[in-house]
Specification:
The protein is an alpha/beta fold. The protein has 16 helices and 24 strands. Helix 4 crosses helix 5. The radius of gyration is 24 Å and the shape is globular.
Amino acid sequence: MSFFTDLAHQYIDGEWRPGKGSWDIIDFNPFNGEKLASIPVATAEEVDQAYRAAERAQQAWADTNPYARRTVLEKALRIVEEREPEIAEAIVAELGGTHLKAGFELHLAKEFLREAIQLALRPAGQILPSPTDGKENRVYRVPVGVVGVISPFNFPFLLSLKSVAPALALGNAVVLKPHQNTPICGGTLLAKVFEEAGLPAGLLNVVVTDIAEIGDTLLEHPVPQVISFTGSDKVGRHVATVCAANLKRVVLELGGNSALIVLDDADVDYAVDAAVFSRYVHQGQVCMAANRILVDRAVEAEFTEKFVAKVASLTVGDPADPATQIGPLINSSQAESISRLVDETVESGATALLHGRADGNLVSPSVLTDLPADSPVLQQEIFGPVALLVPFDGEDEAVRIANDTPYGLSGAVHTGNIERGVRVGQRIHTGMIHINDGTVHDEPIVPFGGEKSSGLGRLNGESMVEAFTTQKWISVQHGRSQFPF
């Protein structure tokens, strides 16, 4: 596909060029195995070149009138709107997203771009009083300088854009490393959009590479002051460790093991709809997905029957077919891992109400119940189409089970009494929870992030200002200070 081959390059200091590494990252369609592109990897030297280009360009960009910075972002939004069908096709091809998923991702991407446009004008300084006569304390919000962004494969266009656009709006330069499975949608496509929008050279650089080639160069390099990482908690811990050793700030958006709780007074049919979407959207490859569905025993039989029937009706197949609801997992390793996990869990005593099977990278949905209390699967993130049904007796047990996980990203509570749901939600140790809704939500001005092993820091809205700017105190002494010697 020419769309992919045209963008199969590194983008450094405003130039499109091949990487200098000795091997290629191959970009495959996960459904049919079609080779979309071949990209020679960037070396550690090229990562250095990208960071140095960003460093050179950043100060002039920070000094640019924020209204002018805003204009670039406005043009980027128009380009995305104009090319939405083409970008949607790329999402379907490169990551196996269904048409529904592609539309969902692009809708959010446009919303986040609109917020970034406003963000350019958001930072405000302060004048604070001083106990010293004649002193004026000015506190400025200034860009951090250069931001390193590492994005995942599941929502690559959105989750790259979500850090890149605000960082640029606030006067920073960026070096972006997309996931190896989505180098175009998560990387060079953004570079093309911002290049056409008139972003000056050097302010956004995209390096398509792998830790096998560059090690921790992206994290250890002296130029970036903030690293924004979205991905697994295992890799996130490594990112945090390396950045701490190098005194860099991090924003970590990591995995989840969300619980959707169905209380005894819930609207069962509605809860079923919310739970099926929350678990199986994009084949379950979503950090906020409802891994665990907790159901009060009073409604367990009714909920289970209806849930299994709805899951069994989902259409599994080619993501290019608009009727498809479950497409492929991102690669064969993930498909094999999910199939093995289901088999091992059943062998350990769980009951499979639906036992999904793999056909290439397509994995049909599984629904497991009767899980032993010590089952390892209850403690981990499942990045695939597998639902765990867990019964409980009363609110206290629901809260205990929901909190019995190292993660704390999202969740939901279904009940006929909204304030009851809020009270339960307040007891769940998670960064986000939704009453009478699904677990998968992201909005441009609402703080997004998790607790425990689900991350550090927040994104969206004012949190973007906190993430990508720093404070600078300048005091002015209008009189004369008295010094003790």
